[in-house]
Protein: Methylthioribulose-1-phosphate dehydratase
Amino acid sequence: MSIPAEAAAAIVAAGRRMDALGWVPATAGNISVRLGPDRIAITRSGRHKGMLEAGDVMAVDAAGAAIEPGARPSYETLLHCGIYRRFPGAGAVLHGHSVANTVLSRRAGDAIRLAGYELLKVFPGGPTHETAVDLPVLDNDQDIARLQAALDALWDATPEPPPGYLIRGHGVYVWGPGMDAAMARLEALEFMLLCHLEEGRPMR
Ligand SMILES: CSC[C@@H](O)[C@@H](O)C(=O)COP(=O)(O)O
Ligand SMILES: [Zn+2]
Structure:
């Protein structure tokens, strides 16, 4: 299946931006866009996200299976599928490994509370800086299906989960209705995490 040029271009541009900000070292990170009810455009596994070309983006179905036989999507494809399945309004998903999200997630318990930051207004339902967002932190797991099951259990127990979470010592997942919104949320989140880190704040 060929990927719509606009979707591939949005993924390539997002990878360059994340790389410029130092959030996707080596071949870290993965990026996707929802194409339709049973189609997702996602980065191929093992590509450097700052040097993507349109051909580094491929299609999978809603269960994460490659449409093109033999093609190898991101190792973490099931996490993207889990987000699109759970949140019908999600149109783009970003995953990065920044220093701030890695260090803070290693120190944190099961959540990091972000409160009092002006940039919280970038998150849905956060019209003022007085809102607090509890960003979930899950233990890392190389069994991605098991990690997604832990996320599903968490989301089942959380009335309105924020559009992002951390994986301990690994990275962040953030989503939005489209790529621009997902990137704005990622930038806001990384900014607040960096503030948190600089201040040496307690986690909750
Ligand atoms: C460079 S190691 C990082 C990977 O293990 C993984 O966490 C990651 O983010 C990228 O995996 P990928 O399969 O390229 O999408
Ligand atoms: Zn990763």
